[in-house]
Amino acid sequence: MADDTRLRALLRQLESADWKTAKTAAIDLGELGDVRAAEPLIGCLSHTNPDVRWGAAAALTKLGDQLKGTEQAVSATGKLQELLADSYWQLRASAADAFGALGATQALDLLISALNDPEEHVITSAAEALGRLGDRRAIPPLIACLQRGHWAVRAFADKALTALTGQEFYEDADKWEHWFATQLKKQPQTDSGTDPEALWRGDEKARLMAARRLAAQGGEGAIAGNVLLALQGSYEERERARQAVRAGGVAAAQPIARALVTSGLSYDAAELTRSLESHFDEIRFRVEQEIERQPKNADAWIGLGDLYFVHSQFRPALACYEQAKKLGSHSEHLAAILEQLQIPAYVPKLRNMDLLRMRFSGNSTRLKLDAPHDFA
User: Fold this and answer.
1) Who contacts 1 (Cβ-Cβ below 8 Å, separation ≥6)?
2) Is the pTM of this model over 0.70?
3) CB atoms < 10 A from the CB of 23, how many?
4) What φ, ψ does residue 326 adopt, rounded to 5°?
5) CATH code (residue 137)
6) Nearest CA to 35 among 12, 77, 7, 55?
7) Domain limits for position 29
8) Count of Cβ atoms closer than 10 Å to residue 190 Cβ
9) From the CB of residue 373, how many other CB atoms can be counted at a distance below 10 Å?
């Protein structure tokens, strides 16, 4: 324990009405390394001054190793969740740092979502925290960071991936994806003999059986099972599954994207994304990855079109549907939705509109649309 006199003096300063004094005291308490300061610091996470909140989060990061597994860590995690949504990026980054130091595994989904933050410092902090938490569910979104981001984002994502896997591929997204796909193939089937890929094979009855097994087993495959049950299960199953999908957050992005590129499921899967608005970009990105792998896959183009259409982005939706038609798709769904885009409500928006050109950026794996925005 640190000197009691020094500790008491800093705790008094932490309560000062002068925010500069309080902020400095918070930082000094972190350097002091005395866990008796944890409760007052946690209280300062709700301070009215953002600088004091930042100092408290930085101090808790310093105390993280000592607080892991304690009730104080749980209490801090609840307050830090608010900081991760703060308007100041410095606070969001500091909150991510603290999550990693505290071993806050319950913040996994929040940190994965933070990988899409507009500020690169927040992304690098989130990536580093995910590497420290050690949960391999973070691997796919971290690989995605290697494909779209500032050099610092790519460096931190690569470092986190190495920490999670023990592998070193030096920011080479293709090698990471190949390695991860290989690991998935090596994984043994679940106790019931079901693996997530069974959801996309066979007839509807076989898919539903696989989905029910996965959902019942829990674990990483459960979210994929619930996605399919939300689309094709009974009424009662759909309601329960939709709740599970919403709770799954960004972890649902991959199975939803898989459903979007599966014939017969795409439009319902697109409707399901309404409850995951904050993860729209992640879902879209995963569908775009499938299109890059198979640019002549008409079902994938229809799925991307459905995703845009459901979110009222009609111009890119039409472009995707036209591309699917050019690739030879004659599905009734495609014909019906193209016809729908010609009804009077849409005509003023679409009349005289040149079809959007599709292209791939030379330095990014992101699919680019000329104007992927709503109508004015």
Assistant:
1) 34, 36
2) no
3) 25
4) -60, -30
5) 1.25.10.10
6) 7
7) 4-186
8) 17
9) 10
pLDDT at position 366 over 50: no
Greatest alpha-carbon span in the chain: 79
Sign of CA dihedral 135, 138, 142, 143: positive
Residue 359's SS3 state is strand
Could you give phi then psi for residue 367, rounded to 5 degrees? -75, 135
Is the alpha carbon torsion for 103, 108, 114, 116 positive or negative?
Answer: positive
Residue 17's CB is within 10 A of a number of other CB atoms, namely 6
For 227-280, the pLDDT digits (tens) are 998 988 887 778 888 888 888 788 888 899 999 988 888 999 999 998 888 888
Main-chain phi, psi angles of 360, to 5 degrees: -110, 135
Element (H, E) at 360: strand 358-360
Residues 126 and 115: beta-carbon distance below 8 Å: yes
In residues, how long is the chain? Answer: 376
| Same domain for 293 and 161 | no
Give how many domains the chain has, as a whole number: 2
